[in-house]
Design brief:
about 90 residues; mainly beta; four-stranded mixed β-sheet; 1 helix; flat
Length: about 90
């Protein structure tokens, strides 16, 4: 097997600690919210759904993942032309 020239990152403290949000564009965000509420049981509001979860390394810590459908063409995604976005929870981002 060839030796990789990539740096070994296995001993580094993780910077990404989870996912903070999942966002996607759709022709009709209201219909999408209703569908996910009806078929998957998401508790939705005008913005989507906040999904609560616990930190596996610190179970007392409560975190939230934001799930949100946006109207196709919404400027929130700019400058990207993609129809989805995943935001990561990052520690020590500076």
């Amino acid at each position: 097997m060839a030796k990789s020239k990539d740096k070994d990152y296995s001993n580094l403290e993780p910077k990404v600690t989870g996912i903070g949000g999942i966002f996607f564009s759709t022709n009709d965000p209201g219909t999408s919210r209703k569908w996910y509420a009806k078929h998957l049981g998401l508790a939705v509001n005008d913005y989507g759904s906040s999904i609560e979860f616990r930190n596996a390394n610190n179970p007392q810590e409560i975190n939230y993942l934001q799930w949100s459908p946006f109207k196709k063409g919404d400027k929130y995604f700019e400058p990207s032309k993609k129809e989805f976005m995943i935001n990561y929870r990052v520690q020590n981002i500076e």
